[in-house]
Structure formats: C-alpha cells, structure tokens
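Researcher: Please predict.
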Amino acid sequence: MKYKTELIINLPRERVIELFDDSANLTKWQKSLRSFEHINGEPGQPGAKSRLIYDMDGRDIEMTETITSRSLPEEFSGIFEAEGVWNSLTNHFYEDGPGKTRWVLDSEFKFSGLMRVLSLFMKGSFSMQTADFMNDFKEFAEAESSAAAETESQPES
C-alpha cells in the first residue's frame, strides 16, 4: 500500500527542519509516543537505528526506525518495522512562498502474518493516522515558534 500526504506549515523551511530534526521534540507532537531510544549508528544519520514505543489504544507497539537517507532540508527518509509491518517514509520539505513550507510525505506499507489480513480492513486508517501525525507536527511547530517569538519580543525587566 502506497500513498502521499501533504500539508502547508506556516513557518520558513529552515525553522520546520530545525524542529523536525530534533528527536527531543518527538514526544511533543507524536502524542502516542511513549519512548524513543537510540540503539546504534550516528544519531540522525543514515544507518542509525532507534527503538520507539507507541501506546496504540492501551497496547504497547515497539518499532525500530532505521534512517535510510538524510539530505535536509530537502529530504529525510527511514524504514519503520514492527511485528507484521514494514513502513518506508520519505519526507520532502519545499519552500512554498514567504514563511511557508510544504511537507510531502510518501508512505509505503508492507504487511505479513495477521497484519496482512487486518490491513485489508484498515487501509483508510493508515492514511488518516499519517495526516493526524503531520497535523500534530504542524500545530506543535507553529505554536512553538509563536511562543518563541513572543518571548523574544518581551521587554527585559
């Protein structure tokens, strides 16, 4: 199963990348992410592996992320693997006018075992979940930048 999701973030691409590329921000916008642990390789670079644990409706789902490509600010790609699920994500970031970034995410899923059967009934939920994650990042990034701008504009006491 393959699909593309995109949205506009009301921030310059440089700021979007800064927030997206900081693993400390993951739990701020991925609401179901319980933990992120670097396993090996140089963090954030191709070949690096991390363990992620998500709370999916009260059930812990463990995933392994392997970064496959990093050419920011244009692209960042990775493979996510969990029991019965293989997921390739390729993130593209484009300047879309002054102070705007278009984020395009290409997703590919492959399933095995029980997940192969379940995926037949859940196709729409995967693309909806991707759109939700992207919207959560957009809200986080825009709010974070707005709060930072307010702090900078406060007169010193």
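Model: The CA atoms of residues 19 and 25 lie 7 Å apart.
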